[in-house]
Protein 1
Amino acid sequence: MEAEGEFKSGFAGIVGRPNVGKSTLINNLVHKKLAITSDKPQTTRNKIRCILTRDDAQIIFVDTPGFHKPRDALGERLNKAVRETLNEVDVVVFMLDGTQTIGKGDLFIAGELSQLKTPVVAVINKIDRLEPDRLEAQMEVVRNMGNYEDIIPLSAKTGENVHALIEKIVEILPVGPKYYPNDMVTDQPLPFVVAELIREKVLLLTREEVPHSVAVVVEEIEKREDRELVDIEATIYVERDSQKGIIIGKGGRMLREIGSLARQEIEALLGEQVFLHLMVKVEKDWSKHPHLVKRMGY
């Protein structure tokens, strides 16, 4: 335990290209499923705060949508969210995928970060899949990309060397108050977390058949009075009738599988039995219209 007055606290923004492992790192840090993971671009659409509290510090991690060249109103909104985050935090964690060639997308983000006064820690992810020579080569490339407080190789998936990142962030953070109670791991409302778990299963099971433009809105969460059961109603929105057919599946099979997998994780999150009722609706080209993007909660 640190002496009184030496407690450190602050916000750490995690940025990087789509699919570099930001959400996997968030989940590893708090050992809970808060951020959904998928191999599809634009999986993360909202800034997700997860809270890591220890005796001497509290770090509030902010996940962000991956920087990318926007093609529609949804893309513009996602990039705006990233820039807002970079201006609000005490330290930026810049994640790169060590298994991929460091390219234009990474250089674009490095250029954005070079304009900040906020300290930046670079992270090379997926070292569990890298040979030592390859890792050293990637480290050298990153050293030449910008002026970083440190460059830390780690595996968000296995947790290897994640502790080194945490220690570096604590070192950088200012002395400050405890913003959240010890047992709190996210400030996101329950309907948002539930909607994200359902959306993850849609992306997982439909793969290439349904693009990223799928949204989930939780209509109701209500605990039954007569028994230990939580009723949840949610609507999955897509942009095409063909996508609706894919998500429902033959005889409703796909929708049942989505519901079954999502229900298991929601029950683990709540610690209670859940009755999950899912509906699928078409909202034509919703991702292209700002007012519909907002209505979907983004």
Protein 2
Amino acid sequence: MPKILIVDDEQDIVELVSYNMEKEGFKTVKAFDGEAALKQVKTQKPNLIILDLMLPKMNGLDVCRVIRGNSETASLPIIMLTAKSDEIDKIIGLENGADDYITKPFSVKELVARVRTILRRAQDGGKKAGMEEFQYEGLKINYTSCLVQINGKAITLSPTELKLLFFLSRNPGRVYSRNQILDHVWGDDTFITDRAVDVHIRRLRSQIEKDMENPKYIQTVRGFGYKFADKK
């Protein structure tokens, strides 16, 4: 039974989300500030976090950074809750490691759907698709164990970044539009916009590229989209 950590300083929201998540078969744990959230992550080891942006003691962005900066929790899926509807706030959340975002007031049914989608994405990330390993100029990917290495050093990616890398690396040299990437990586998750593809590509590059301005692996094809470099 997947365990969901719900973090919000508004108790009514936490109780509402918790009730509906448990009704859908999830186990829930709760936190009402950023510091408590990090303690729960350490002790409860949740499978996913629903994390409010505006929190006392430590805000959601800082909590997200700490989680992504710890190798033990770096791949933990995070859905960011925000009362702000500005596009920039959503992009900042994604750039700091959130896998998805939802704006208050939100539909509980929609939130449940997003939780299921991201957990499925995390579970499916390591499934084989014709080959088990891939190597290219210092980058090594094991699709079965989900191990990614750069020059022998293990790199920890979020579930979304991992699935994005898997998809592009399985098709080196082939250019995909943002909409095609959305269809293959996010599937039936209709909440994500093509702008989010750019954000996740940028985060993925920050993890695997030595020079983000001149990427070796994930390359931009202007006017079309992205591709993994042609294998020599």
